[in-house]
Amino acid sequence: MSSVAEKLQRKSQRQVATKQVRLKLVYIDFWSAVKFSFLITVSLGIVLVVAVVLIWVVLNSTGIFGDLDAILKDVLGEPTFSVTTSVSLSQVALFAIVIAVLNVVVGTALGAIASMLYNFSVRITGGLLVGFTNN
Which of 5, 15, 21, 78 shows the smallest number of beta carbons within 10 Å? Predict the structure, then answer.
């Protein structure tokens, strides 16, 4: 009786014929492209907001805003000027959310336009030839 390792070795030594298939991508569904681009841009928007908040927290905890505040007070000559009130966490987070929402709208529209342009160009070029193998 043979062990499992011997069976696997014999199986790997056999030549397995791979079948290759060539297909043409001739159509991209509009709503699938819109949904896909929407989900991608929403995830990128979430990453943007989290990254901006984390960067602000790191800069605030290292004291960079305080140092920048002191430098700008010396340069401007105004003792009432404060960077920390101008660049608070709530303002930075709100700005990042607004930018993320704009990116979602623009990215979704670009995904829809790209699928329409591909579908129109397929009429001229015949589609994209893609090869697949079966292992």
Answer: 15
Q: What is d(CA 115, CA 36) in angstroms, rounded to the nearest whole number?
A: 11
The phi and psi torsions of 128 (rounded to 5 degrees) equal -100, 125
- The predicted model scores a pTM of 0.74
CA dist 36 and 32 (Å) reads 6
CA–chain centroid gap for 84, Å, is 31
Written as six digits, the tokens of 135 are 């292992």
Q: How far is CA 111 from CA 37, 50, 80, 93, 101, in A?
A: 5, 24, 48, 26, 15
- Say how far apart CA 55 and CA 113 lie, in whole Å: 34
Decide: helix, strand or coil at residue 18: coil
Q: Encode pLDDT of 96-123 as tens digits.
A: 999 999 999 999 999 999 999 999 999 9
Would you say 45 and 105 are in contact if contact means Cβ atoms under 8 Å apart?
A: no
CB atoms within 10 A of CB 128: 13
DSSP lists the bridge partners of residue 22 as 131
